[in-house]
Amino acid sequence: MPSVSNAIIRIKNLRLRTYIGFNPEEREKLQDVVINIEIHYPAEKAAITDDVEKALNYKVVCKEIIQHVEEGHFLLLEKLVADVLEIATGHPWVTFASVTIDKPHALRFADSVSLTLEKHCC
């Protein structure tokens, strides 16, 4: 088997509801957010051995993100994205992660407003 340098996990269009915003109506009403996450980690051992213990468990990461977002209250999209990025990079194998969160209907004539943050890990 050829050498595998990096795995890229993509969680696409995770649709959740949370309290996001600082206007009075935003602080009282759940709003939709759409989350896209990219996580990089070295997966050579998992690819060679087919051993679950040698792979990053994206289901565990996703469940932690869902819990944090759905139970949270956020004034700024920046804070929400930063929190999700911290969860996405929480495993020691992660070398890079990028998180984009869309807030649909945040502006009158736009489909959504989105913010992206990235983190390079050791």
Automatic annotation (TrEMBL):
Give the EC number: 5.1.99.7
Q: Which InterPro entries match?
A: Dihydroneopterin_aldolase (IPR006156), FolB_dom (IPR006157), GTP-CH-I_C/QueF (IPR043133)
* Transmembrane domains' residue ranges: none
Q: State the reactions this protein catalyses.
A: 7,8-dihydroneopterin 3'-triphosphate = 7,8-dihydromonapterin 3'-triphosphate
Q: Name one Pfam family in it.
A: FolB
What does UniProt give as the signal peptide span? Answer: none
- SUPFAM superfamilies named among the record's database cross-references: Tetrahydrobiopterin biosynthesis enzymes-like
A GO MF annotation of the entry reads: dihydroneopterin triphosphate 2'-epimerase activity
Q: Which UniProt keywords apply?
A: Isomerase
Q: Which residues form the Dihydroneopterin aldolase/epimerase domain?
A: 9-119
What is the similarity comment for this entry?
Answer: Belongs to the DHNA family.
Protein name (record): Dihydroneopterin triphosphate 2'-epimerase
Species assigned in the record? Amphritea pacifica
Gene name, Swiss-Prot/TrEMBL: folX
